[in-house]
């Protein structure tokens, strides 16, 4: 009885097999809703299922010499080892693996993975909608070069416009309505850094930071520190001038203060 149920479940997934090359990126992955099944025959052969007709399974047999499934074959479903089956369910850009038919049957009844994927997709869509309501704030030039130094300069890593966009705004930025505007502005910043020597462009189109970036950042930080010190000095002078003006007014009798202690009484 149990074997009959498991064979019926196996027929169900074999009738819904996917392509050999599976796309997991948007928007192509929105069409994903199929299974990938690897099974073992009673004679020990390892197969990748490609379809089923009646009780006859069409599959690709694993070739040890080539280390791949590339030998076309057919097998009766009664010759399948029902205890040695791997099922991968692809839905949109998610996938779930089941190491046994029993695990798949339980999930198929209660739809646990479908519910999980649906909730996850709904949450991501909601998060994207909320993110799209925010404005992608561009960073000043000195903050951008500081970010590039910390993210890529210390480890001497190459980077591209896409990776920089992801680091600054997260992956959700690629779904933002102002994505192109933001990317074009970043591209102009990188072009200015290239022209002034802070970064170089390699033959593969990726960017790499140079030693001049540190000099540029330190020069800005020194000027910024001087500017802040100048503001502090100005504020101090204003406060000091106000205090002196108050003291002069008191001394001139323009401002009369009530004595704290009257010794005449």
Per-chain topology:
Layout: H1 2-14, E1 33-41, E2 46-53, E3 56-63, E4 68-76, E5 80-91, E6 94-98, H2 101-110, H3 112-132, H4 141-153, H5 161-169, H6 179-196, E7 199-201, E8 207-209, H7 212-251
Antiparallel strand pairs: 1-2, 1-5, 2-3, 3-4, 5-6, 7-8
Helix pairs in contact: 4-7
Average pLDDT for all residues: 85
What's the alpha carbon Rg, rounded to whole Å? 35 Å
Structural class: alpha+beta
Q: Please provide the count of β strands.
A: 8
Terminal Cα span: 115 Å
Describe this structure in words.
There is one protein chain. The chain is 47% helix and 22% strand. By secondary structure, the chain is α+β, with helices and mostly antiparallel strands.
Q: TL;DR of this structure?
A:
The protein contains seven helices and eight strands, in the order H-E-E-E-E-E-E-H-H-H-H-H-E-E-H.
What descriptive keywords fit this protein?
265 residues, alpha+beta, 6-stranded antiparallel β-sheet, two-stranded antiparallel sheet, 7 helices
